[in-house]
Amino acid sequence: MKYFNLFSDVLVTKGASRILISDLQRNISEIYPLELYDIIESLKHHSVEDLLKSYDEESQEIIHEYLDFFLEKEYGFFSQNDWDKNFLPLSYEYKENDLLSNIFIEMVDLAILHKIKSSIENLEIKHIIIFSKKNLSLDELVEIDNLFKNSPVSSIEIYSPYHSSINIDFIQNLNQNTLRFHNIVFYNCNQEPFKIIKNTFNFTLSFLNENLKISSCGKVSLDYFNTNINKVLEAINYNSCLYKKIGIDAQGNIKNCPSMCKAFGNIENTTLEEVLNKENFKKYWNITKDNIEVCKDCEFRYICTDCRAYTERIHSNEDGIDTSKPLKCGYDPYSGEWEEWSTNPLKQKAIKHYGL
Q1: Where is the 4Fe4S-binding SPASM domain (predicted)?
Q2: Span 230-236, mean pLDDT?
C-alpha cells in the first residue's frame, strides 16, 4: 500500500468555492479547486490504492496528476505503510508572552510620546506604530528614536507627510543616527525624491503619492496578504488586527485601535496599564476570522488581517460584538471574485455612517 502524507507545515484552508494551500516554511500560498479538499482529506485516512477504487478511470488520472503536482511542489511525500501518517502534526497553538505586542499612535506632536513613555516601558511594549499628522523633521525623528533607547522598544514604524527637506542626505543622516526604525513611509509625495535601493538603510523606506489618513487603514487586498507562520497562527487563534494591541487617537483617547469609536479613557487622566485591566478592552481579542460572517467561509481567512474599525455593520453575536465582514473588502468567497468595495450598493449605508 502507498500513502500520501502532507508535510506538517502545509496548511489547507477550505473556502466556500476554493481552497488555499499555504506552505508555512516557504511563506507561499496558492489557490486550488474545491474538489481537491475531499481528496486531501481522504488521503489522511486511506491509502492511494483504496482512494482510487472509489473513482472512475478519468478521475483516477486527475488524482494521479494532483499527487504528482504535490510532489513537485514539495507539499508532501509517499510512504509504503501508514506509520508515517502518525507523525506529529504542526501545533497550531499561538503564544504571545508580552502583555501588549504593539501600540498604534495617531500623533499630533511629540508630547504624547513623552506622556506615555513610562507606560510603554512598564508594559514592555516592543513595537510602536506612529501615524504623524504633521511633517517630522530630522531632529524630531532622531528624538523619537532616542526617547526609547533604554526601553524594551525594539522597532518603530513611522508614517509621516512628505516635505521638501527630505532628500538622500536626510535619509542617510536618519540611518546613521537611529537604531529602532524598521519601516518609514512618507505619504502625500508627488514623486520619489530619489531612487531607493533595497537594503541600503537599516529600515525599509517608501514614498507614497496617496494622502494617507487614519481612516485609510482596514483595506483588504491580495497585496496585504501574508503567509507568515506567526501571523497565520495568530489568525487561527486570535483577532489578527487587535490581539494584544492598544491605540491612541489624535485627541489622546485610548482605544483598541485609533480608528475605533469606543474609548476606554484618555491619556490626560488614565494610564495604559489601567485600560489594559478593563475587562471590555480585550473583548475583541478572541474574535477570529472563523467567528466573522462571510470571512468564516473565505479561503484567505488565515493570511488576511481583520478590521473591526470599519465593518459592514450588519451582524453581531450574542455578546453584542460586531461580527460583520470588514467594510473595505471587495472579495466574495462564494463566487471567488473581487470587486471595488466602495461602489458596492450594499455597503453604502455603512460607508455613509463612517463618513468615508
Answers
A1: 242-299
A2: 96
